[in-house]
Amino acid sequence: MKIAIIGTGYVGLPTGVGFAELGNEVVCIDKDEGKIDKLSSGQVTIFEDGLDEMFSNNVRSGRLKFTTSMKEGVEIADVVIIAVGTPPHPITKEADMRYIHEAAEELADFLQGYTVVATKSTVPVGTGDEVEKIIRERHPQANFDVVSLPEFLREGFAIHDFFNPDRIVIGANSDKACKVLRELYKPFDGKTQILFVRRRSSETIKYAANAFLAMKIHYINEMANFCEKAGADIYEVAKGIGLDSRIGHRFLNPGPGYGGSCFPKDTNAMAYMGRQYGVNLSLIETAIKGNDERKTEMANRVREAIKDVADAQIAVLGLAFKNGTDDCRESPAMQIVSELLKYNLRLKVYDPQAMENAAKILGNKVTYASNIKEVVDGADVLVLLTEWPEFKEINLEEIKDLMNTPKIMDLRNLLDPQKVRNIGFEYHSIGR
User: Fold this and answer.
1) Active site residues
2) pLDDT score for 283
3) C-alpha–C-alpha distance, residues 427 and 406, integer Å
4) pTM greater than the 0.85 cutoff
5) Pick from 373, 387, 384: nearest CA to 420
6) Could you tell me if 389 and 351 are in contact, meaning their C-beta atoms sit under 8 angstroms apart?
7) What is the per-residue pLDDT across 143-163, written as a single tens digit (0 to 9) for each?
8) Phi/psi of residue 74, each to 5°?
9) What is the enclosing helix (H) or strand (E) of 163?
10) What residue ranges define each of the domains in the chain, with the CATH number in brackets?
């Protein structure tokens, strides 16, 4: 099939590469000329495990192309996928729909023949109706259907998730659109459940799923706090409750709070929609508030660890919101760093992939290190904030010799407490 994808970010690019790998002809469209120039010359613009090689193979084969021209991509497409950003409004926290509306207006002019227009961006319930109305008013003779194709790609695992989805959700109000999408997703027949629902149900599913997972994370973090006070071990507790098939073991890892490009944005948007419709979504509202407070709580734990040290130096390992990505948007690590900077503390930071993105946010407020040894040199406390595998394997004897004070705040529970303490560190973790 011929597919146009509008947007080349953390959703659009992996989706485009994935569909090209399945044998489709894919054109990715973006207004950012610099980004399109890089992609066209074979340079991947985001970090995703497994993306580089698949990207290169499909560019070489000619199945994957890039352009700034909406006309070039849309007029030949069987399916047009909108994958632009829906950032939160700075005040209301509702999803900002300007990029969706702009894309709908612009693509409308170039629709030829029957075309399925799909929203893959996470959008408020009713967006499909709005997109349909925009296109219809702009191009009354257009032959098209608007569908909802919510994405469930985890950053850091987007390529894996594309080819191994838990489920594929398709929100379509016409049999004709369903037929096209059955053909598009034919390679997944028998491999996963393909769920066809009404368009508004599909739009709700993505928000409901992310809000539920965010609440689960907030719950286990509250239980971790309880375990610390009560003398229990959060991992033993999580294993015990996770064995209940009604609960499950996933998303029961304590830490500094949820973050990233999805959970904070989507929980806030869901809460806003609840208020719009006059529905009390108290669990989601509470999770949002508690998760915001957790970043401050974690920063205060770090401050407590250095309260008796004059002009203390803090070493931070991890800035991305999780391992496997360079994305710093709504990163708990970045929020904790920002909170610490309010107290004019000295911070030296390192992340194996996210340094460039972090520097765009932090500027010259911190010192940037190029490796683990450099970041811990002269530090009074080491703070672990992102669960990169290489941080689990750090040479504890070596870094102990480099630090002023052998103290570790492990806010991701990456290290073995007994091993760390046996080497001579003062060690603090979450829920243990």
Assistant:
1) 262
2) 97
3) 9
4) yes
5) 384
6) no
7) 999 999 999 998 889 999 999
8) -80, -40
9) helix 158-163
10) 2-197 (3.40.50.720), 207-291 (1.10.1040.10), 293-428 (3.40.50.720)
